[in-house]
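Thread: Modeling a multi-component assembly for a lab meeting

Hi all, long-time lurker, first post. My supervisor asked me to bring a structural picture of a complex we are working on to next week's group meeting, and I have zero experience with this. I have the sequence lines for every component (1144 residues in total). Could someone generate the structure of the whole assembly? Inputs are pasted exactly as I received them:
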Amino acid sequence: MSQARLLITCTDRPGIVAAVSGFLTQYHGNITALDQHTTDPDRGLFFMRVAFEMPGTEPPGNWLQTEFRQEVAEPFGMDWHLAFAARHKRMAILVSKPDHALLELLWRWSRGELPARIAGVISNHPENQDAVETFGLPFHYIPVKQGAQAEAEEAMLEQLAAWGVELVVLARYMRILSPEFVDRYPSRIINIHHSFLPAFAGSDPYRQAFDRGVKLIGATAHYATSELDAGPVIEQDVIRVSHRDGVADLRERGREVERSVLARAVRWHLEDRIAVWGNRTVVFGT
Amino acid sequence: MSQARLLITCTDRPGIVAAVSGFLTQYHGNITALDQHTTDPDRGLFFMRVAFEMPGTEPPGNWLQTEFRQEVAEPFGMDWHLAFAARHKRMAILVSKPDHALLELLWRWSRGELPARIAGVISNHPENQDAVETFGLPFHYIPVKQGAQAEAEEAMLEQLAAWGVELVVLARYMRILSPEFVDRYPSRIINIHHSFLPAFAGSDPYRQAFDRGVKLIGATAHYATSELDAGPVIEQDVIRVSHRDGVADLRERGREVERSVLARAVRWHLEDRIAVWGNRTVVFGT
Amino acid sequence: MSQARLLITCTDRPGIVAAVSGFLTQYHGNITALDQHTTDPDRGLFFMRVAFEMPGTEPPGNWLQTEFRQEVAEPFGMDWHLAFAARHKRMAILVSKPDHALLELLWRWSRGELPARIAGVISNHPENQDAVETFGLPFHYIPVKQGAQAEAEEAMLEQLAAWGVELVVLARYMRILSPEFVDRYPSRIINIHHSFLPAFAGSDPYRQAFDRGVKLIGATAHYATSELDAGPVIEQDVIRVSHRDGVADLRERGREVERSVLARAVRWHLEDRIAVWGNRTVVFGT
Amino acid sequence: MSQARLLITCTDRPGIVAAVSGFLTQYHGNITALDQHTTDPDRGLFFMRVAFEMPGTEPPGNWLQTEFRQEVAEPFGMDWHLAFAARHKRMAILVSKPDHALLELLWRWSRGELPARIAGVISNHPENQDAVETFGLPFHYIPVKQGAQAEAEEAMLEQLAAWGVELVVLARYMRILSPEFVDRYPSRIINIHHSFLPAFAGSDPYRQAFDRGVKLIGATAHYATSELDAGPVIEQDVIRVSHRDGVADLRERGREVERSVLARAVRWHLEDRIAVWGNRTVVFGT
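Re: Modeling a multi-component assembly
Sure thing. I ran the full set together rather than chain by chain. Output:
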């Protein structure tokens, strides 16, 4: 059997589930998990993720997508994505000096916990080269010189295109990317911000958290948009801190949350669990 | 529009979602939320909860159930339950002296957070009578005399039957009910146990927790079965404690977890979100 | 034995613990819990909470305070507070229509979980009168008429003064109090804000949280200062929400967090566990 | 300045804090953090951790310990431990095939988050040799042959003795160690068990958790004693799971909790924060 999933967004109206499930039954697909959400039954948005099995050891050819488009997707005006579990998405990681989020992703990936093909890692610092190459992955050092951000971004975009990347993960990449860069991968760049957004957007959030005297610190994984730290939130988590923790303690303790929040968000994207709706996300079946 | 939900369990095979959703479309039902789970695509169990809207301000008559049985449920060999949101389930609460779980339920119910018709409260102690009557609910004091457990249970069962109760909540009812009692309401008696089961089953779990020196204490809401503290778990939660907490502190801090865990479990049952599978539960869409 | 505690803030320098503990030993006090924190060993601030027992069934007279002032507090330039557990602090609650935080406090207090003498409840709405009087407490309805905030505050301050109140709890009091009001009870007004501050300060935080699409919602208990929602944080907590939760769901689920966060903060204040340091708090031994 | 800490256990009686702090003041020590706990003011046990600074860039010689023993420890009958932060404890890690707990410890250690001198790693499997050597640490493969557990333990004890190890961490070492082995390092062997003990002691706890249908899974770090999975608990934590998670999912998700729980427990031991009291622990100032 071949595992597949279908992620659908469209305007709600009666009959969508029946049309999709009827289509799958007709082509001998067996639904193994289905999760559906409607923002408002009256003219709201309809979201659905269907995981199903198709007969045969190989994923079916493009005919399934063609048939689905004609029979179901176009009549209902759907945004949709059909993916086969056997075909992992191609992903790249951008990172600066801090290595904790990067290593967490590589570590989980090397154990089979992240269903991706990692094309490589790009960094504006050379420090993580050895660590990355230990995992058998290419490392590209693309420094960002004073006043030459555009050239650096151009070089990064070229590399990402050469790799055919479908997902870009900012695993503590500490430069602000231009709107032009971000717009090239809409809802396909995941950033980890080291605070519970919208609190402490911008620079040095642990310092901000310390100064405000909060009792919990957090991390937020979100899709990058052209507005800094304002894109759709995918996942957040927090841990408790106390008056005993200085800024350095917050940084250290926060790393653990950053690591796990980012890893969950990346996994959910790779498993086609996330639909974007304006500035919010629907995350299915986790 | 009239809100309804369908909770289904059957052996998995292709076409179930298509049959159910096709049926609903045919009768002008609009699916607003659907959650499905399969334990194993190959001869496993299939679970599904469908929330949908039917046209008209009144719930449709029994014809919908009759049609569904004939067209869908019987061909697929389904265990199924069709409920209308406008018709709240009839529920009774059994309690002993501790009032925290009882009051939490009554308080939430009085705000509209628990979609139930509470028929009344039964207790083996008279202490909570005033508190219950403040909420405009009947209170029945049914003491359990030494060696007369059977008579007391008989009286309770008569009262529950007279009320036409569909759900019994043990909100810290401190007597062990006989298997005969429990078997009268299969998967329809919810108990709150004041530990993270299976740890500390039996009596005085906070004392047991203190003696073991655990760093977290918890509570477990589960369906009662004839085996004490061993029924299917619906919900669990924990809170952190420390060496500073004595047994009395654990009891006090634990009350908060007991209250919220029980309230969640009862609500999920009332909303038809829980399917039982052997000694486990599937809890949908929370 | 008589239980007491001493809460101390002063500039750090060697010998403070020795002076305090030597003093207590000299007067036959036995330390039962001690927690100390220094922001910076080099010219930082020193905070300490000492719980101790004094011989005798009655708290000692003022001589203990006089001696401590002369022998220890003045030489070290301490801000200090000596309290006896047997003498509960006098507290008032201000509330508007929402009753959940109010009832949680009254409920815990009636079980002995909050060591306070509650003098009474003041509200700008009459709705909670019956609920408050059920607990045997006075309820004062002080409406705030258009353009007459100052008169209403004057009436409230008079009532608080008549009660001899030492702690004011804003249990969802939905009016902004003037700086003049707030300054009358420095570090002695505890407010519950229904968000994880500093996110979503100001009005309707659940709506703000929904609009931002966060995955956790929270509550913050803090000392009120003249700047709205900006005072020293005492306690915070969060719970997980999902795309299924609308604004009304966030409000309902948030109530549970508001209740427990506020109850913890009030208890800690009553137990003299909180020291304020600029815009932050030190919370001892919880 | 030189950082030090003193961890003390003795029978409670008045004057202990005064004696210890007076001693430190006399020798120009400045207390920077103090945490004290008494199990019962009347003949209970007294626990205290004091962090302090001594003048001079080098830790003082043995004279401080000699003086403390004579002036304070012996008169009060104390169990005590004086450690200097600059002198890291010597630690060894025992591991079998699973590498997640091992790598988490090495990773944190390499960033300076675990104040230890790691002497080396011993394993009954060769698989983790490369990973360990990457960190510049020795790896000893000591297989346990059928019926030759005693010989293997002998070899391990020799190696640990040769290293002068003060702390042994079982980072998923999957063999049961003999009481003779465990008794050689009382309260100095930390084990991570992959369940929320006392639930699911023994083998394959994730399978047990799945079979019981729990809604949270956990991990427990504890000191090893001669009774399996029954030693004093240092730290525990849990994460939420659902009906969607099979045994393999529980294993994968549980790794994250195992990693963080073990890392915290090891760190607290290295910082002299843990006192053992019968089968329980006092954990100070975290």
